Amino acid sequence: MKDILPENVKQDLRRLRLNDMAAHLDEALEVAARTREGCLTFLAGLVRKQVEALDSRSLERRIKKAGFPERLTFESFDWGFQPGLHVEYIKDLAHLGFVKERRPLLILGKTGTGKTHLASAFGIRACEAGYRVAFFTAQNLLHRLHAALAHNTAHEIISSIARSHVLILDALGYVRAKPEYANLLFDVVSTCRGRVALIVTSNVSFEEWGLTMGNPSIVNAIVDRLLDRACLINIRPGRSYRTEGPLAPKLSADSR
Fold first, then answer.
1. What is the pTM of this model?
2. 48 lies in a domain?
3. 106-135: per-residue pLDDT in tens?
4. Which of 61, 90, 206, 235 supports an S-S bond with 109, CB 3.0-4.6 Å?
5. Beta carbons of 73 and 121 less than 8 angstroms apart
6. Which residues, in sequence order, are CB contacts of 14 under 8 Å at separation 6+?
7. Exposed, middle or buried by CB within 10 Å (0-12, 13-18, 19+), for 230?
């Protein structure tokens, strides 16, 4: 009977879709017998295994749905590579106060300075905290919205994006602009303002955004909305990981 009972319990747990509790039952019984723990402690430990597994799967779903190009985290960021980086300020931001307050976060820096890494790290941290995150390159999002204009569904896409807690627009400086892009970006920023924590990375200054998007007057209105209550990380004077980092190609003596 003793041998049959654990298997019956496992079957019942699986029928209740408590598969992780079923998987850890034998281990939990062994620990309980060895430590002579009470019934409530035994049950609490087993339930905790189920909760942890559910939390882990939920996190993985949020990260997958967010659409990060890579799983870049603060733990894998080289804090010592950029000597001018305000590390304490960034680590304070990593507590996600700006997300709770739905404030923009602007990350400016030349190519290769770690903008996308930082933006993704904030996004991963937000996923870990239970927030819904959406990651787009600015080019891809604007291209998608532009294509949706033909079906009059751009507003539906923007409304869907605005239901996220965090929206990351990466590489705004690399946009190959079309005449409608400035208005579409304005609609995204205006819709998200005060509702979504908007993280924007760019390799060009605010003054150059108008030239990039081809409509300075509308871009000025976008910048005005982004700067309102914004947090700013400026690594424009920083070094490039791609050309100066540890994995950068090394020049031979003959090519110098």
1. 0.86
2. yes
3. 999 988 889 999 999 999 999 999 999 999
4. 235
5. yes
6. 22
7. middle
Torsion sign over Cα 165, 189, 139, 233: negative
Domain identity same for 102 and 204: yes
In a domain, 237, yes or no: yes
Q: Give the neighbor-by-neighbor strand order of the sheet with 133-137.
A: 133-137, 166-170, 197-202, 105-109, 231-235
Show the domain range for 11: 4-53
Same domain, 99 and 23: no
Residue 156: inside a domain: yes
Q: Cα dihedral sign for 8, 10, 11, 12?
A: positive
Neighbours of 98 (CB within 10 A): 21
Question: pLDDT tens, 153-209?
Answer: 999 999 999 999 999 999 998 888 888 999 999 999 999 999 999 999 999 888 788
